[in-house]
Amino acid sequence: MRTPCLAALAAAAFALPALAVTLIPLTDQEIAAHAAHAVVGTVTGTRVGELDPDGDGVSQPWTTVTLRVEQALKGEFRAGDTLSFRQMGGTVGQTTLRTPGLPQFAAGDRVLLFLNARLDNPAVSPLVGWSQGCWRIRTGGDGAAHAARDFSGACFATLRDGRLVAAQKPDSREEPLGDLLERFEAVLSGDNR
Q1: Paired strand residues for 66
Q2: In this predicted model, what pLDDT tens digit does every residue of 4-50 receive, in sequence order?
Q3: Is 101 left (phi over 0), alpha (psi -120 to 50) or beta?
């Protein structure tokens, strides 16, 4: 009985479109090391347009995200600066492109972002590790700020003996923003707590 059920489940899984991306889990130290910029900020707006970044003659939707920097942990941006970056996905006319594993942004979102140096023309997104480099910040009923990552549309794997094997998702539990920032400030200063 178990074999037919597993076979039916496997067949159903292959009949569905793939709606996930496979990512290699990154540690806090790896996220910090790969980031050229690390900022806390509030999204002030998004704009979608069609681009052909690789020059193959095929345009697709890309979203430009703009935010006001509240605090900088790493990089050239400072509190009060405006930061814009571009990532694949969005809706232009009748064309919608969603990239699994990439967060979507809207005006008013408060976030902690770890970004690589290519903000305007990345391969897909400048977020370090895609969703791994984005914490969404919310203020609780007690007035305290908390942050968490969302790994919807992502699964994780690592290489072992030359083969890709499933890996545990990084921690996505909500935590106090102050604790998260303190942890990354320690990592960035070389004090790996």
Answers
A1: 45, 84
A2: 433 433 333 343 445 689 999 999 999 999 999 999 999 999 999 99
A3: left
Q: What's the CA gap between 81 and 68, in Å, rounded?
A: 6
Please name which of 132, 113, 92 lies closest in space to residue 43, comparing C-alpha atoms: 113
CA nearest to 124, candidates 147, 108, 101: 101
Q: Which two tokens stand for residue 55?
A: 């020059």
Dihedral (C-alpha) 142, 105, 130, 47: value to the nearest 10 degrees?
A: -160
Q: How many Cα atoms sit within 13 Å of 77 on the Cβ side?
A: 29
d(Cα 183, Cα 22) in Å, to the nearest integer? 26
How many Å separate Cα 21 from the centre of its chain?
A: 12
